[in-house]
Amino acid sequence: MEDTDKMKCKKTERLSSYLFNFCKIMRYPTVEKRAKAFNGASYVTVPEDSVFLKALLFELKLTDPDKNFVEYRDSCSRINKTSVYALPTGGGDLWPVLAFQKSGFIYVCLPLVEQSLKPRPPLISISGISQAFALLSGLLVFINSSQKNEAEMSAKVGQLPSLLMQACPLGTPLDTDLNGLLDNIHVSTNHVQKQPVWRISTYKGKPQVNVCITEKVKSMQYDKRDVADMWQVYGTVTCKCDLEGATSNVTVSLNLPANGSPLQDILVHPCVTSLDSAVLTSCSVDVMDDSAFSGPYKLPFTPPSDLFNLCYYTSQVPLPPILGFYQLKEEELQLKLTVNLKLHESVKNAFEYCEARIPFFNRGPVAHLEYKVSYGQLDVSREKSLLVWVIGQKFPKSLDISLTGTVTFGSTSKEQPVDPICSGSTAYVKKAPSYQFDIFAHQGRCNLD
Which residue has the higher pLDDT, 85 or 418? Predict the structure, then answer.
């Protein structure tokens, strides 16, 4: 990729001058020179910080709150379905500006386009777009990790120039794990030898490969004989390789347990160098048979320096690990809640933690709660819009647990979560006997070699 003019600033409706208190802009002259050469006559100069900020806030509808409709920006002929914008400046439209808002901040990056901008090339043909997303995602994780107050936020913003100098030397992203770079900087401060500012810090220490498997079971259970329940497993294998010297090849082998279901719909990271064709041809759409490939799933790859998702997969299991029944009944200003959960006997009754989360949308905060649980404890989130049933590290011997209660809500406010689907005549919670909620349980399923 190559990029970038990048800005991160605090979202607020106050004066633009206040925004600069939490704004950090990185410019790369080398990228600008390359942009002039690639874009030719279609090149648009990046304006001064204040002009850029004003154009960005206008495009994101964060200025002039009294003007809800601006024809140039909001007309039906200009519907933006992506996070890529064209910012009008005195010298023309600056494009493609990648920007998104998260947790009260705006993350912005201007990727290099290695061709003429007239006519505008398809976004899928610009490699810098996906790399800019990866870089901003790493920046987002860094900013939001262990951030507690304004002073700590200011300290993190102050660390960005030195971190970005290593993560993105000369405007070319090499590492998106800023937290990992920060750890390497702290470790390397005792070394006398200094590395060039354009070269990313190298790992020194015992070679190690860290692999994490995360599986999510999506299940729709209707509790009706004439309607079949549906469920499927979605897995992600995340990897981080710390290796000295020249990058070497690594192979991760996934082995299923004796009663494990074959993996399907496998998508691998581009760094995977080769793969058995049987791994790629297994699809969840096809009917399962005894001849389905059941491993081992060997993934040889040349690892990137940062944390990455090695592969994604799906899997069909005979039954969902947890069977559930969820019912809401509205009576006047109260909701009567009933939840029954049963752990399937084939699942190992041992977790790092297990909890069920029950959200409430388009309502005020939880004002009063009366409940009874047969196991565990029930908590209300700080935002008063979520019930968290903490089950713990195991189910009781009966493997059955239940929750009943009555919830009363206060006046609706802007701080409460909103779901545009679950409102008005489409508020199915009022009528339907079941509703989707989340169960979080950490437990291993695949073996690693």
Answer: 85
Count CA within 13 A, CB hemisphere, residue 74: 8
Query: What stretches of 283-430 show up as alpha helix (H) in DSSP?
Result: none
- Give the pTM: 0.50
Residue ranges of alpha helices (H) inside 239-390 are 277-281
Of 212, 255, 257, 256, which Cα lies nearest the Cα of 236? 212
Q: 285 — alpha (psi -120 to 50), left (phi > 0) or beta?
A: alpha
Please indicate whether residue 377 or residue 276 has the higher confidence score (pLDDT).
Answer: 377
Q: How far apart are CA 357 and CA 417, in angstroms?
A: 14
Cα gap 80→59, rounded to integer Å: 11
Cβ-based neighbour number of residue 99 at 10 Å: 19
Secondary structure class of 93 (helix, strand, coil): strand
pLDDT tens string 380-410? 888 888 888 888 888 999 999 999 999 998 8
Cβ-based neighbours of 168, under 8 Å, separated by 6 or more: 3, 4, 26, 28, 135, 174
Alpha-carbon gap, residue 421 to 292, rounded angstroms: 39
Helix or strand holding residue 122 (H, E)? none
What one-character DSSP code corresponds to residue 171?
G
Tokens 């910080």 appear where? 49
What pLDDT, in 10s, does the model give residues 81-97?
788 999 988 888 899 99
